Amino acid sequence: MDELAEIASVICDTPMSLITMVDKDRTWHKSKYGFDVDEVNRKDSFCQHALDNPSEILIVEDAQLDKKFIDNPFTKGDNAIRFYAGAPLVTKKGYVLGTLCVVDTKPRKLTDIQKRALYILSKKAMDYLNSRKLILLQNNNIELNALKLKKLTDLAPCIIYQLQIAKNGEMKFDFLSKGINSSLPNFDSELIKKSPKLIFDFIHPDDLPYVKQSIKESSKHLTEWNIAYRVKISENKTEWHLGRALPEKTKKGTVIWYGTIQNITSLIEYEKTMEQIMFDISHVLRKPVANLLGLTNLIENEKFSELNFKEYVGYIKIVSDELDNFIKKLNQTYRQKNKKIAGFNRNFPKAGSKKKNN
User: Fold this and answer.
1) What is 161-263's CATH topology?
2) Average pLDDT by consecutive 10-residue portion of the chain (358 residues)?
């Protein structure tokens, strides 16, 4: 903007030029060349007279001969303004915001070429203001959307992060959601942003080499990182976490990781419960089922009296009661386990099946 004002002075051969904005009570100078005043009262401003004719350049060849400026304080004294030419700054809707003007302390006239140049420069100034406004609006929208996104990520039931891994292995979190604080109690998220490798201190010692190697391999081959590992929550408590990320390499060789870390302890417990149920079904039920099969074979292949028949029925009832009691107990156990994991996403990828649990 300052350069546009200076160009206007050079083209019109004036010692001063301004890009002004006019509001209700004042005229303030967004850019100025050869002029030290930042703003003036609107009633003393030359620019206010250019607002009524947005398609015309206001030219005052000698202010001391113009009735509108006889009592104007800027037309008095040694450095009194004698010449003024202002091209209105007009919005797309036709509103005049101010002017691009050139000023001199002596009377003068502008050629048609100078008038045309002043008009073109005013359009360029308006283009700049429109672009600036658009950029500010976009920045405000970006900041607002970023704030909304941060609120969403802070409330997400997992850790969301963006991590940089340099060629030398140095790590830096560009973003780390507040989920880290709930996933790792007594943990300072700001501290891990400064020293990302501190997160390794929470990983179970038996799983740490595996985790580090998987990170190294994913960074090297840019393959998806998707592993389950244990973390130490307290002295006597261990939980399972699932780490997932998509690494991308920049032109500078840095690998950027976009990922999440989720607590999957409930999923592991669910899988263990299902394994126990399958074990119970395959092992505990084997005996009564085998007994029933044996009794039915006897009934089919042997001739027996009514007394023997009642005896066999009694055996079948004993075995049936045994099965019924076990199934009731199994259902009760399953319902209790199921309450703990209600609502958990059963489509979550199976993880950690080969790991040794505490």
Assistant:
1) Beta-Lactamase (3.30.450)
2) 89 93 88 88 90 89 90 87 93 88 94 93 88 76 67 67 88 78 62 79 90 92 92 83 92 90 82 75 70 70 63 74 75 64 44 42
Q: Are 156 and 171 in contact (CB under 8 A)?
A: no
In the chain, % helix, strand, coil (3-state, to 5) comes to 50, 25, 30
Matching residue, tokens 């998509």:
246
Which one, of 240, 225, 249, 294, lies nearest residue 271 by Cα? 240
> What six digits make up the tokens of 246?
């998509």
Burial of 152 (0-12, 13-18, 19+ CB in 10 A): exposed
The side-by-side arrangement of strands in the sheet containing 171-176 is 171-176, 159-165, 255-263, 237-249, 225-234
Rounded CA separation 171/194 (Å)? 9
Q: Give SS3 for 206.
A: coil
Percent residues over pLDDT 90 in the chain: 27
Q: Return the CA Rg of the chain.
A: 41
Cβ–Cβ < 8 Å for 159, 182:
no
Burial class (CB in 10 A: 0-12, 13-18, 19+), 257: buried
Helix/strand/coil for 321 = helix
pTM as predicted: 0.46
**Ranges of each domain in the chain:** 2-139, 161-263, 268-340
**Options 3.40.50.720, 3.30.450.40, 3.30.420.40, 3.40.1190.20; CATH of 2-139:** 3.30.450.40
Compute the residue count for the chain: 358
What angle, 0 to 180 degrees and rounded to 10, lies between the N-to-C axes of helices 112-155 and 2-12?
180
pLDDT digits (tens, 9 = 90+) for 255-312: 999 988 888 888 887 777 777 777 777 666 677 777 777 767 766 666 656 666 677 6
